[in-house]
Amino acid sequence: MNKTQNNLRLLPRRFKKAAFSLIALTIFFVVLIFSEFVTVEKELAKTVTSSGILLSFLLLALTRDKVEDELTLIIRLKALAASFIYGVGYVVISPFVNLLFDGEFINDEMGTEGLLLTMFLFYFGMLWLMKKNR
Amino acid sequence: MQNRLKIERAIKNLTQDDLAKLIGVSRQTINSIEKGRYVPSTVLALKISEIFDKPVNEIFELEDTD
C-alpha cells in the first residue's frame, strides 16, 4: 500500500512551538519599534514583521495535529481550497468594489503580504470551523 | 452509505475512543463515520472489518442513492 497516498508530509508537532516562538518574537520586535527603543526604517520594519508573521503562519499550517488521519487530511485540503478561492475572489472582486465605493471598503495598499496574511487567516478559520463540525 | 458501526461497537463493548485508538484515527472520525457524514477509505473500512471480524459489506452497505 502506498503510504504517501493518504498522507501529507507535514512537519512534526515541535514546529508548532517554533511557530509560536516566532510570532512572539515578531510581536516583541513590533513593541520595541513602537516604544522607540529601536529605530528602524519603516519599510524594513514592515518587511521583517510581515515576513515573521507569514513564516510562523506557514509553519503552523504545515505542522501536524496530535491525531492526523484521512478525515483531517480532507479537512486540510478543503480549507486550503477555500482559502485559495478566497484569494482569487479577493483579487478579482476588489478592483470592482474599489471602483464602486471609491476605495472606502478595501484597502488598495494591502499588497501581497496582506493578501497572504488574510488567506492564512481564512485557512485557519475554515480549518477550525470544519474540525469543529466534522 | 449506511453502516452498522455503532451496533458492532456496542456488541464488542468498545467506546468510540477505544475503536479510534485501535485503528489509529481520531474519535471525531469514528463519530463522523457513525453519523454517516464521512465515508471511510477502503483501508480504514478494512481495518474496521478486521477489528469486528466481519466482512466489510456486513458493516458498510450501499444505499439506493449511492
Explain what the structure shows.
- Chain B: Keywords: DNA-binding.
- The complex is a heterodimer of chains A (134) and B (66).
- Chain A is mainly α and 134 residues long.
- Chain A has two domains: 1-66; 69-134, no CATH class.
- In chain A, 72% of the residues lie in helices and 0% in strands.
- Chain A is built from four helices and no strands.
- The longest helix of chain A is centred in the middle third of the chain and has 32 residues, at 70-101.
- Chain B has 66 residues and is mainly α.
- Chain B has a single domain, classed as 434 Repressor (Amino-terminal Domain), CATH 1.10.260.40.
- In chain B, helix 2 (16-23) packs across helix 3 (27-35).
- The longest helix of chain B has 11 residues, at 42-52.
- Chain A binds chain B through residues 1, 6, 67, 69-72, 131, 134, and chain B through 20, 24-26, 28-29, 31-32, 37-38, 40-41, 43-44.
Question: Which structural class fits the helix and strand makeup of chain A?
Answer: mainly alpha
The tally of strands of chain B reads 2
**Biggest interface and residues each:** A-B, 9 and 14 residues
Strand content of chain A: under 5%
Q: What characteristic shape of chain B results from the CA principal axes?
A: globular
Principal-axes geometry of chain A comes out as: flat
